[in-house]
Structures are given as structure tokens and as C-alpha cells.
Design brief:
Low-confidence stretches: 1-43, 50-71
CATH architecture: 3-Layer(aba) Sandwich
Order of helices and strands: HHHEEHEHEHHHEHHHHEHEE
Distance between the termini: 35 Å
Strand content: 5-15%
């Protein structure tokens, strides 16, 4: 029965070994959870693109067979629009994602239905006749070796979680990506600069990074990294105004606010650099990167910096937003935020 399902999936373009098991894992994990250039780098970062060793197919639990085919489809309540508000089919989104080098998935981190849609989109993406890597904001660059050890089957999940500093909602929202990569032997990238260095920028400014030893700078993008564009600065200031009064007023407060923006920029630059390094390694044809919506919406942040580091990179921006049941595309709230918009009704 499993072989028959795998064969049926293969007629739709599936080429990756063990993909039927991957698709099943996605559904089961979600259910269980809810029950400048390289010359500027002081010390080379370890290679950023790794694949798990080829392992024999593991038996598929018969209870998972019915989930395999549906793993390539989103939750029924998900609605897909173009950035201008035209409704489109899920298949249109999947096809568009297959035509670019970098797919940027912008999320609201507590959007449960949206998470399940992104799981399905990544599952569909990695079944295409293209080699793919998954890249996550939720893991930092200095735990890449831990990720690789888990993907390769060298360490237990318990020790992986102890050593990798996962987010609190890892089990429900991000574990499916890791297990997809593990099952299919795909590269999985920890893309974010370590938080301790982002914190340093928020306290001391970007210049303070130059004081770090080479052993620390290897986890960062080339220094100095680009400052914010005018458009990104305007978005940031609008976000801060919406958050209400904060911090210290006057010149001291302005300096602190600027350092916060610089720290945000380090996150963006670090993730963009990780993506570009992986493309330049020529080990994969496409990167699917998951990050908070602010990092990618409107084409600012990560998209700008990917183009800075590697001009001409083709990208697709897919931004997800939770909405009240029955709500439609809002041109003010959603218009132009990405090439595609996913609306996920809250329950």
C-alpha cells in the first residue's frame, strides 16, 4: 500500500527518496503537537550546507498512509491571494515557488493555522524535481553542527533539543521542518546570528562587533553589514510608534532606538548571508527560508540584503497573516506585503 501511494505521488513530480514518509511525518507531528564578500570574514564558518547520510527507508506506520497524500495540501480554511488581492489556488502558489532560487516565508510566530499551511508548502516544495534546503530563523548559526548531528542520526532528539536552544513553540510549529529534512536527507540551516551578539549591538552599537575575537565573528555576516534602507527605517519607526512609548527620551533615547534598529539589521543581514552562502556553495538549487514577517514583508530586510550580497537572486515572498473568521484580504493591512499572501482564520 505504501509503495502504491509513493508511486502515485511520483507521478506528480516527486523525486526525493522517502518523500512519502516525509509527508506522513509532517501531518503526524502537527497532530501530536496540538494533542560585502567573503574576503571580509575573519575566520571561515563551518560549511553551511550539509545533508544527512543516505539511510535505508524506515517502515511507514500504516496509520500514516492516509496522511501521505494530504500532506501536500494546506488546511482547508487557508486562503491564498496575490499581493494585489486577487484570489488564487494553492497549486498556483506551489508552482511559483518552484521557479525561484529563494522562497521567503514570512510568518506571525503564533499563527497556528498558518504554521500548518507553511508545513504543507515546504512539503510540496521539497518534492519538486529540484534540490532544496530548508533555512530557519529559529536556529542560530552556532548550532549548525548540532543540527547536522541530529539530521545524520548521530545524536538523540533529547540531546539535540538540549544543545540547540529551540524556541518554546518548537514542538508544534518548527519540529515538522526539522523532521522533514531528517527524513529526506535535506540540508537544514540555522540562519540567525547568535542572540548574544545581537544583544551586544543593542547595547553598544555595531562598531562593538569588531572587538569580538575571530571565533565569534565567524558566526556573523561580513562586517560591517549594511545599514537599513530608507524604506526599512520608515517601517521600523512605524512599528515602534505602534508599540507606544518606550525607553528613555531625548538624545539618549534616540541613540538607544538607533541601536535597536542596528540589532534588527544584524538579524536580517545574518539570515541573508546564510541564504547566500548556501546558494554559492552550489549544493542546492533552492532555499526555503522561514522567518518573522517583518524580516521579509514589503521586500525589505532579508530580501534587500540577499540582493546586496548576491545581485540578481530570484526570490518569492509569501507572507502569512492570521485573520478573524470570515475576514477577507485587506488592501491596507495586506496589500503589497508579498508576492503572495496567506490568510489563516483564527479559531
Amino acid at each position: 500500500m505504501v509503495r502504491a501511494i509513493r508511486a502515485r505521488l511520483s507521478t506528480g513530480g516527486v523525486r526525493t527518496p522517502r518523500m512519502a514518509a516525509v509527508c506522513a511525518v509532517v501531518l503526524v507531528l502537527a497532530a501530536c503537537a496540538s494533542s560585502p564578500g567573503t574576503d571580509d570574514v575573519d575566520t571561515a564558518r563551518p560549511p553551511m550546507v550539509h545533508t544527512a547520510p543516505d539511510r535505508p527507508d524506515r517502515p511507514v506506520d500504516p496509520r500514516l498512509e492516509s496522511a501521505i497524500e494530504s500532506a501536500l495540501h494546506p488546511p482547508e480554511e487557508i486562503r491564498v491571494y496575490t499581493g494585489s488581492g486577487s484570489p488564487v489556488e494553492w497549486a498556483d502558489l506551489v508552482r511559483a515557488a518552484g521557479d525561484v532560487e529563494v522562497v521567503l516565508l514570512g510568518e506571525i510566530h503564533n499563527d497556528g493555522v498558518g504554521h500548518r499551511a507553511r508545513h504543507a508548502l515546504v512539503a510540496a516544495g521539497i518534492t519538486a524535481d529540484t534540490s532544496t534546503a530548508i533555512s530557519l530563523e529559529m536556529f542560530e548559526t552556532d548550532v549548525q553542527e548540532v543540527l547536522d548531528e541530529y539530521l545524520g542520526g548521530w545524536i538523540s532528539e533529547e540531546h539535540f533539543l538540549r544543545a540547540s536552544r529551540p524556541w518554546d513553540n518548537y514542538a508544534s510549529d518548527y519540529r515538522p521542518y526539522v523532521e522533514m529534512a531528517r527524513e529526506a536527507g535535506l540540508p537544514l540551516l540555522g540562519a540567525n546570528p547568535p542572540r548574544r551578539y545581537v544583544n551586544r549591538v543593542s547595547r553598544l552599537g555595531t562598531e562593538s562587533l569588531a572587538e569580538l575575537p575571530p571565533s565569534a565573528r565567524r558566526w556573523l555576516p561580513p562586517l560591517p553589514y549594511p545599514g537599513p534602507s530608507d524604506a526599512y527605517r520608515a517601517e521600523w519607526e512605524s512599528l515602534m510608534e505602534g508599540a507606544g512609548p518606550h525607553g528613555v527620551s531625548g538624545p539618549e533615547g534616540e541613540a538607544a532606538a538607533e541601536r535597536m534598529l542596528e540589532a534588527q539589521g544584524l538579524w536580517d543581514a545574518g539570515m541573508a548571508w546564510t541564504i547566500v552562502e548556501a546558494i554559492r556553495a552550489d549544493a542546492v538549487d533552492r532555499i526555503i527560508h522561514v522567518a518573522g514577517a517583518f524580516h521579509v514583508a514589503n521586500g525589505t530586510g532579508i530580501p534587500e540584503l540577499v540582493q546586496h550580497y548576491r545581485p540578481g537572486t530570484t526570490m518569492l515572498l509569501i507572507i502569512g497573516y492570521p485573520v478573524d473568521p470570515g475576514s477577507d484580504f485587506d488592501p491596507v493591512a495586506h496589500g503589497g506585503r508579498g508576492d503572495f499572501i496567506l490568510l489563516a482564520p483564527t479559531r
